[in-house]
Amino acid sequence: MSVPRAAVHAKWIVGKVIGTKMQKTAKVRVTRLVLDPYLLKFFNKRKTYFAHDPLQQCVVGDIVLLKALPERRSKHVKHELAEIVFKVGNVIDPITGKPCAGTRFLENLPDSENLTEADTTYLSEKLQELKVCSTDK
Amino acid sequence: MPMKGRFPVRRTLQYLSQGDVIFKSSVKVMTVNYNTAGERSEGARKFVFFTIPQIQYKNPWVQIMLFRNMTPSPFLRFYLDNGEQVLVDVEEKTNKEITEHIKKILGKSQETLEKEEREKKKLSHPATFGHKKYHLRECMCEIEGQVPCPAFVPLPKEMRGKYKAATKNEASA
């Protein structure tokens, strides 16, 4: 009985990292569209996979691509981290190659060095409002 | 009594089976990044709304993931079995253009589909009888011109086992 590759059905999966509390292992949630037989509408069905992440470079919220291992690494770990597709907080638009957040690019935002005096006074005023004063009890 | 929803025709089996994009077996994951507002993403939104159900129905083993409002530009990304990734820029394209494009680059051609259908037909022999799942007919009584099923029409006396046994006993005795 020859098994050429992967003891698991899913060879490549894309999912979101939901937990990194295990050493060198990432808990990844994968959603697939499943057809409801009565409504005939597709809904997301979740499944969690454990992926081997030797450098512990995943943070909760990353979108990652997992590759199936040729044989199981442990009882639950059957995949390994192939690539981090979108790093949380540091999404890079693959078409232009620039960092972005939501529907805006992050490149054209003004840096703190280029702020005018009006901006700095406005910001310092706002900071004063945020200062927490100790109340007497 | 009309169906519920904005375009409930999307939820009919006839519409779903009309999808003509069938991916090659090497396509494993399809990721769609689009925005919920903005004109540049309009075609992508229509694609997700109308065509994605058809694609998923025809390719049940391809994982489809939708990401909303992550990047300013909309795109599709396919992850193939050999590690290759195909990036498709979808900005300023209509639903139809996107479907035609992915059908051309990653869809099975008409000849491959016809060949597969012929192979499938070869596996089942049309002249055998058995369970409805695997054969066309279950019993000879279903065919016109043959002896009807004795459950509905009683067999003539001469064909019944008890008459034949009785005549045989009489002949021997």
Automatic annotation (TrEMBL), chain A:
Keywords noted in UniProt: Mitochondrion, Ribonucleoprotein, Ribosomal protein, RNA-binding, rRNA-binding
Short name of one Pfam family: Ribosomal_S17
Sample GO molecular function, one term: structural constituent of ribosome
UniProt cross-references to InterPro entries, sorted A to Z: NA-bd_OB-fold, Ribosomal_uS17, Ribosomal_uS17m_metazoa
Protein name (record): Small ribosomal subunit protein uS17m
A biological process term (GO) from this entry: mitochondrial translation
Family under the similarity heading: Belongs to the universal ribosomal protein uS17 family.
Cellular component GO terms, alphabetical: mitochondrial inner membrane; mitochondrial small ribosomal subunit
UniProt-annotated location(s): Mitochondrion
From TrEMBL, chain B:
Localisation per UniProt entry: Mitochondrion
Ranges of residues in domain Ribosomal protein/NADH dehydrogenase: 36-109
The keyword Iron belongs to this UniProt entry's keyword annotation: no
Coiled coil: none
GO cellular component: mitochondrial inner membrane; ribonucleoprotein complex; ribosome
GO MF terms, alphabetically ordered: structural constituent of ribosome
Gene3D superfamilies: Glutaredoxin
InterPro entries xrefs: Ribosomal_mL43/mS25/NADH_DH, Ribosomal_mS25/mL61, Thioredoxin-like_sf
Keywords, sorted A to Z: Mitochondrion, Ribonucleoprotein, Ribosomal protein
Pfam annotation, one family: L51_S25_CI-B8
Primary subcellular site in the record, as a coarse category: mitochondrion
Keyword Transmembrane: no
SUPFAM superfamilies xref list: Thioredoxin-like (SSF52833)
Family listed: Belongs to the mitochondrion-specific ribosomal protein mS25 family.
Protein's recorded name: Small ribosomal subunit protein mS25
Species name: Otus sunia (Oriental scops-owl)
